[in-house]
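Exercise 7b. Backbone tokens:
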């Protein structure tokens, strides 16, 4: 062996040894990572290398937690092309990253950009990035490729779920097939940008759960709140991208994660440093009303009621016999057709998951009153609502098709029904007969009045807890409760008060076109 060959061999051996023994976070052109070697992010949060999941003997290139929960995998490169031995090698070249086995290249970043001085770096966020060393990594546009654009079953703070409108890249998450098999599972989740953007979870190619459009605070179909202030949610909606992401609050991005399980549930987990375990603080489990389109067109699903489905006011089951047999898929139809020569009014529903917006029209610049006029001027308009509920509401969504996949919040609906009954002195019809038979009516009425005081629209009008205790324990005079908060739906009517129906409190305001027959 000549001197030159010996030097090259020593350099290659030294490079491999350094990668295996020193916590470096980057590799460059002509460097490689073999099975058994790793690179670690600068702060020690994450590690990249080869692993075998569960009881499997297959080998995969992946990223996992290093500092906490050592070995918990968050991303897999070759999830659908496993390696059957320990021959895997990662290489860096002018096209990015390639993963080699004895059979050749089985996975790559497949970038179209030629890199003069390519660098692959693992960040403390868990993101694996490729960029040209001649450019500044601090500028996000200089990143040629990043693992965060291709989520697996884990959603980390900083990741995006959505569409890059410039490149056309659609980022969505997908479940593993099982805990032993990281290949693409049956469940996935992502944004549908047809009409007004909304979030779906899919089972195969079928729409399984619709979380609705973003209303400025959350997806309108989401019943969860942000517990314990773990993170904030951000929805980006501009001419370059439409995406959703999380930002941690007073925590590192390396101790929070969302995981889509092989059975389709999403678990929100936070690392417990004291007990050194992942704690589930929210599980998005699927209930009856979450199933897409359970009640069909113009049907509302009530989470805590039986039967689950009910037709909107002015509608009746399309197939009555099937409806009675708890097959609601046929939905509802109008009792009376729309008459565009009649004057129009609006029936308000509040606290709702808005209907499927896949064929809707929207304008973020107009207000609700303008939105109403637009809907009134188009006989094909079936409903309207604010696009953003913050600061009194803004933006406009118009529906021109059947209204499907609506879910009500029965607690809010009960508030509005109670208000209507109270004002019309119909409390006896509102109270369950069993309660009336076993209770003092005056006391029951007083409790209802106290409850209404607690749900008034303006929080400053609501009593303090100490005042509620005093009200319950004394005969002090109670103020007349003001109107609680609620939302709107369109009806066509001839301004006859006999046609009015009670308003239901459901969440996001929706206005729906319908005809209410005389009673």
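Sequence design result:
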């Amino acid at each position: 062996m000549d001197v030159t060959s010996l030097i090259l061999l020593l350099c290659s051996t030294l490079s491999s040894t350094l990668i295996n023994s020193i916590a470096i976070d980057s590799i460059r052109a002509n460097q490689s990572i073999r099975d058994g070697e790793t690179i670690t992010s600068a702060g020690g949060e994450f590690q990249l290398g080869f692993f075998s999941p569960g009881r499997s003997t297959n080998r995969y290139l992946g990223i996992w937690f290093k500092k906490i929960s050592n070995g918990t995998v968050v991303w897999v490169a070759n999830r659908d092309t496993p390696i059957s031995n320990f021959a895997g090698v990662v290489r860096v070249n002018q096209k990015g990253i390639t993963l080699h086995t004895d059979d050749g290249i089985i996975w790559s970043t497949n970038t179209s950009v030629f890199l003069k001085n390519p660098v692959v770096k693992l960040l403390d966020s868990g993101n694996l990035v490729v960029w040209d060393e001649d450019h500044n990594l601090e500028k996000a546009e200089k990143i040629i490729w990043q693992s965060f654009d291709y989520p697996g079953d884990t959603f980390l703070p900083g990741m995006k779920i959505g569409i890059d409108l410039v490149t056309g890249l659609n980022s969505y998450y997908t479940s593993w097939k099982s805990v032993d098999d990281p290949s693409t599972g049956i469940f996935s989740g992502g944004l549908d940008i047809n009409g007004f953007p909304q979030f779906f979870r899919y089972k195969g190619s079928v729409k399984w759960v619709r979380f609705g459009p973003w209303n400025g605070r959350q997806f309108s179909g989401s019943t969860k709140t942000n517990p314990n202030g773990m993170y904030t949610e951000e929805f980006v909606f501009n001419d370059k991208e439409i995406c959703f992401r999380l930002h941690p609050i007073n925590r590192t991005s390396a101790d929070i994660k969302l995981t889509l399980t092989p059975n389709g549930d999403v678990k929100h987990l936070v690392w417990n440093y004291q007990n050194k375990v992942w704690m589930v603080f929210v599980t998005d489990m699927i209930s009856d009303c979450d199933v897409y389109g359970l009640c069909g067109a113009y049907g509302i699903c009530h989470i805590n009621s039986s039967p689950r489905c009910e037709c909107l006011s002015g509608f009746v089951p399309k197939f009555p016999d099937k409806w009675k047999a708890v097959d609601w898929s046929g939905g509802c139809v109008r009792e009376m057709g729309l008459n565009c020569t009649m004057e129009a009014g609006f029936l308000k529903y509040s606290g709702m998951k808005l209907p499927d917006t896949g064929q809707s029209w929207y304008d973020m610049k107009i207000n609700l009153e303008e939105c109403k006029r637009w809907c009134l001027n188009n006989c094909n308009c079936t409903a309207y609502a604010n696009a953003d509920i913050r600061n009194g509401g803004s933006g406009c969504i118009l529906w021109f098709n059947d209204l499907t996949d609506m879910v009500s919040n029965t607690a809010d609906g009960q508030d509005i029904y109670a208000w209507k009954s109270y004002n019309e002195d119909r409390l006896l019809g509102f109270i369950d007969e069993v309660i009336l038979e076993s209770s003092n009516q005056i006391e029951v009425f007083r409790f209802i009045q106290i409850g209404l005081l607690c749900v008034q629209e303006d929080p400053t009008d609501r009593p303090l807890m100490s005042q509620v205790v005093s009200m319950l324990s004394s005969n002090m005079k109670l103020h007349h409760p003001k109107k609680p908060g609620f939302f709107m739906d369109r009806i066509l009517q001839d301004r006859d008060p006999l046609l009015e129906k009670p308003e239901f409190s459901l969440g996001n305001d929706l206005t729906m076109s319908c005809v209410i027959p005389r009673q």
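Instructor comment: The radius of gyration is 29 Å. The chain is about 15% helix and 35% strand.
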